[in-house]
Amino acid sequence: MEIAFRQPKDVVVEVTGLQVRLGDTQVLKGVSLRVRKGSIVALIGPNGSGKTTLLRCLLGLQPVDSGSVRLFGKVPGPESFRRVGYVPQRLQVDRSFILTVREFLAIRLPATRGWFWRSTHFIDAQLKELVADLDVERLLDRPLAGLSGGQLQRVLICSSLLNKPELLLLDEPTAGVDTPGEKDFYELISTVHRRLGLTVVLVSHDLSMVYRHASWVYALNGVICCEGPPEDVMSADSLKQAYGIHMTPYQHHHHVH
Amino acid sequence: MSIEPFMQRALLAALVMGPLCGFMGVFVTARRMSFFSDTIAHAALAGVALGFWLGVKDPTLPMIIFSLAVALLILWLKERTDLLNDTIMALLLSGSVAFGMVVLSLLKGFRNELDRFLFGDIFSVGWGDVQVAMGVAVGVSYLLFRHLNALALLTAHEDLAHVSGIPVRRMNQLFVILLTVTVALSIRLLGIVLVTSLIVVPPATARNLAQSLRQQIILSLFLGLSGAVGGVALSYPLNLPGGPCITLTLIAFFIFSLLISKLIRPNRSSPCPL
Fold first, then answer.
1. N or C: chain B end with fewer CB closer than 10 Å?
2. 110-129 in A: which are within 8 Å (CB) of B?
3. CB B163 to CB A94 under 8 A?
């Protein structure tokens, strides 16, 4: 409770001095960051920089060696997870498991928890608004294992919004999605962010999309190398610091924030 | 025409355990736990041998206890070591069978009992066995339906299940315990060697015909029931062993479903691999 009082009200995520060792490798070497309410924050960095480990710490999936993680002022756990929507990179479903999109969504919506005994008509009526908004209606009968990367991400966003979260955490959401699909996906995130006033934290390797859509960027490589608005962080010098090699930042001429 | 009491008991046992294995199998196949199920079935042999060594008349209880111990040991080794799943299971499967065989050969005079457990003997089940099977089937089915959402979400993505408030570790342990009890009790029907067929083939057959998880569960329940009861019903007049007849009936259903799925949906990506 004490921490909740100390923390400014508009800070949704607070990470302080986070250190994590995986085997013999010190993956996070004292990471501190803050995510303010209503922002779209991108975590970028090269492979092995600790992006996904950091996200796993936020989700309470990775034991921490030292430092602290707070979501809404609390240690990550069932209570704070009620306010969180999580979009994983991909699902583990294989062809032998024919969970349809309708069933996957029904499982997670409180009103349709008893989906096995309910009619399709009843389930669709409960899901109607959200699936229509996100253009998932036409996918309801499809098995999850048969969706394309872009379709699956759309369904995962839809599923993560079912519990009306305040914070959306996305792990490399466009890995395995083609370029037009990536663009659609980030536009969908922007729309959802705007319309629902969500805070978004996303791990991404896609610098051009981060440039276009993020409001704040953390460049990570074991430590936070630099942070700031995308146009500052994604200068050649900052990227060199984070990635350790020279990279040309994305240049675009029509950006809108 | 009256049905002999031993046949009544055999049909009832098949009627109860068939659908239960079919239901359980949907999640076993989806979670790639077929080998796990085979390992705990083979571990039962060591339990049977220990039961005889301890002088127990009906070794069902030591069989369940030993299988549970092996199942929990697999989970523990998975969490605490870097060994691959396949390696852990191959190690425990061969170790349990070897241990069971050594104990049985030291005891002597259990050759018939060994065959009974290896290949099943559904016609020897007593009313007590049928009652236990019914009780277990009701209990396990209740728990499976009660935790259906958690199991489905766990199968889709463990981290997503964790963030959705599902106690992942506890749920995995519960599933393993339910699977172990189901497998151990089904050994009386099909024997250690063939019991996995009743867990794996019905959901694989259902997968060829169903278009949703709900359909797959319902079909798999029905196929488990039909295969088990049909196999028992066929074996007696033909004077053939019950367990292999059940397995062959299930496989006949699978081949039939494969042909139907090709006829109905020739463009479907691919049928379920067995």
1. N
2. 113, 115-116
3. no
User: Which CATH number covers residue B90?
Assistant: 1.10.3470.10
d(CA A137, CA A127): 9
Please name the fold of domain A1-83+166-173+199-257: Rossmann fold (3.40.50)
Report yes or no: A35 and A13 within 8 Å, Cβ to Cβ.
yes
Which of B214, B215, B272 lies nearest to residue A96, judging by beta carbons? B272
Best mutation target, B214, B217, B220, to test chain A (most A CBs within 10 A)? B214
pLDDT, one tens digit per residue, over A112-170 is: 888 999 999 999 998 888 888 788 889 999 999 888 888 888 899 999 998 889 999 99
Q: Which of A86, A96, A102 sits opposite B160 (nearest CB)?
A: A86
* Number of domains, chain B: 1
Distance CA(B196)–CA(A152), nearest Å, equals 33
Would you kindly state where each structural domain of chain A is located, as residue ranges? 1-83+166-173+199-257, 88-164
From B156, B58, B79, select the one nearest A101 (Cα to Cα): B156
Task: Give A98's contacts in chain B (Cβ within 8 Å).
Answer: 207, 210-213, 215-216
Q: What is the ipTM of this complex?
A: 0.86
Rounded CA separation B87/B131 (Å): 37
Query: Which structural domain range is residue B57 located in?
Result: 5-189
In this structure, is residue B223 part of a structural domain?
Answer: no
Q: Does A81 touch chain B (CB under 8 A)?
A: yes
Q: What's the pTM?
A: 0.87
Domain membership of residue B251 (yes or no) is no
Query: Does the CB of A108 have a partner CB in chain B at under 8 Å?
Result: yes
Domain membership of residue B136 (yes or no) is yes
